[in-house]
TrEMBL record:
The basal body constitutes a major portion of the flagellar organelle and consists of four rings (L,P,S, and M) mounted on a central rod. The rod consists of about 26 subunits of FlgG in the distal portion, and FlgB, FlgC and FlgF are thought to build up the proximal portion of the rod with about 6 subunits each. GO terms for cellular component: bacterial-type flagellum basal body, distal rod. It holds the Pfam family LlgE_F_G_D1. Residues 215-260 form the Flagellar basal-body/hook protein C-terminal domain. This is Flagellar basal-body rod protein FlgG. Keywords: Bacterial flagellum, Cell projection, Cilium, Flagellum. It comes from the Bacteria. InterPro entries: Flag_bb_rod_N, Flagellar_basal_body_rod_CS, Flagellar_FlgE/F/G, Flg_bb/hook_C_dom, FlgE/F/G-like, FlgF, FlgG_G_neg, LlgE_F_G-like_D1. Belongs to the flagella basal body rod proteins family. GO terms for biological process: bacterial-type flagellum-dependent swarming motility. Residues 5-35 form the Flagellar basal body rod protein N-terminal domain. Residues 95-158 form the Flagellar hook protein FlgE/F/G-like D1 domain. It is found in: Bacterial flagellum basal body.
Amino acid sequence: MIRALYTAASGMSAQQANLDTVANNLANSATAGFRRRRLQFEDMIYQNVITPGAAQSQQTASAGLQIGLGTRSAATEVIMSQGDFNQTGNPLDLAIQGQGFFQVQRPDGTTAYTRSGNFHMNNQGTIVTADGDQVLPAITIPTNATNVTISSYGVVTATIPGQTTSAQLGTVQLATFANPGGLNSIGGNLFLQSSSSGNAITEAPGGSAGLGTLQQGYLENSNVDVVAEFVQMILAQRAYESNSKVVHVADDMYSQINNMVR
């Protein structure tokens, strides 16, 4: 009974972490470019009462008797499915149709990656994120520029007074990874590369690396499916209740054994 108490407790702890993940997904259902997480579980160590394959006789071997000791949360997987697009009309809002991440430079000089394309200009005309991080490669738009256009392949052009043709100001580049699900989330809609994700592969949108194209005047919504998250919440609640019932039954059985001596 004591073993059952701890085993069921591990299940309750795992489902609590599952519910925390669901809560974070729902809280960010309106966050541009957010990628939902899915908690993964793994079973814990097994107690070998009889080791599988142990010889019972010269002709037969035992199938074994193993008792599992519960579960635990092993990892949170980042789901990289495409989110819906929301038309904003802002010429500096960009959405990625397909794979890839925008590159931004953090205040400490490191490069971070994001799917959130709600950009604007700072006081120097440089394109930056909502937090003021510079988009890489740096693109500066003159203050007197009009009709800023960003093509699906990342080419930024604008009309400059006194010039007969549109001026090309730069090209937005995207980054991709061998394993995007292994990126390290640091908040602020930003990811950092890790040993699990591999090194960044940078290229203009729509290139040979399989990167997506850009949609100007749109933002990509979170890829959280609210209905699916509510279903997952119910499943987590039922699993939690089942484990708590095991704790209650094991406690009753243990109480009955204690009362046998009276």
